[in-house]
Task: structure prediction
Amino acid sequence: MKIPKIIPVACFLIFFGALCFLKTETVEARTGYIYTGDSRMRRLNVTIGMSKQQDTWAFYKSGMGYSWFVEESLEDINNTIENNTYIDNWVIISGWGVNDLWNIDTYLKKYKELLYDKWSNCNLFLMSVNPVDRGFNAKYAAMTVFNEKLYSFVNKNIIKSGGRIFYIDSNSVMNEKGFSTIDGLHYTENTNRFIYRTIRVNINQTGKDGAMTLNANMKKTLMHLGADKKVKWKSSNTDVIQIVKKYDKNKYKADIVALSPGTAIVTATSDDYVINYVITVSNDYPLTVYFTYDGNAEAVAEYIQSRVGGDVVCIYSNPFYPLKKKALGKRIKQEYDNDARPEIMLNVRKSANEKLHTQITTEQFDISKYSKVYIGYPLWNNQAPKTIYSFLDKYDLSNKTIDVFYTSYDENVYECELKNVYPNLNINSMIGFAVDDVLNKDVKKQLRLWIRN
Result:
């Protein structure tokens, strides 16, 4: 039979359209960077060329201070934000103050106004006034007070702003590591490169991870990148965020756990500079529930819970499934033939610090507080174990979003029949793994993407 020419053309168009759709779906968010300041910022731009970089702008004026900032630079900054609508996130780096140290209170008043109005969707980085040499120390003695007030202002507003304001303590870093100037006030190219690296370390780490929201019981690893010596970690509220592990070999890393709803600041202090993580713990408790026989589904469940937080529940049958393969096969066949609903018990671990589960009956378990549920199990005869059916029959999950994961000894992991048996459940997605691959590098990557979606 002769195929009409229009069919291959139509197929090509459909395929091309699909590619365009996929491409659109994977576009990453664009971040714009705006630098503003006086002659020091101008010389930094001459050395680095920030304004020549993609999605980066620089507005500066030599010898100027607060007046030029609000009368000239501010208008340019706001127009840039308004006119470049393709930018999703804005980062503003402000390096004003060396020419009018006495204006610190006026600067802070304006920063506060901008932070909660024009720049309410921006991350604001306030640079310290950096050191001088060659007899300039006496003239610029007030820079210590300027920087102290700037640092205090950031700490007072960091939680209220939702973690959108940060302090770049380049002054301490330069005094610690050393610096050089061409005239006592303006820096050499090497020092400017060092200052720029300090700025980027702060932006790349604090701007990305500095403000975050975690679910209760979620664990996360924090880092203080660029630190040469041991980092001291501290939580402002240990009832909300607790530091559970500090790495001996990698002293710039620490593990935290979210315990209860609220907001806390985790401070990472090194000899170089301070990083503040503003962490809000939500009252969202996802539920990860699983049945396991050989431990594979449990391993996946524990990994998911470590990524999403919330509570984790193990289902087990009463009586237990037999250990001998022949007896197990016989019982499984009987349950499937009779469409059985075996009696089940639950082991619940509600605290992220608990290593042991608490055994409860199904009547003691309240599922109403969970809106998101992950359900996992091994495939038996390409079906979910009947213990899973018992759980789904016992509780009302009709108003919850459900994601299903399962493991199989078959190299080809098949999607099971659960959607057909429970058509009224909102099963958002299903993912399966061969047991030989459970929690290898590729599977962990798949799980992270699956959880994120």
Observations:
- Residues 1-27 have pLDDT under 50 and may be disordered.
- The radius of gyration is 29 Å.
- The first strand starts at residue 31 and ends at 37.
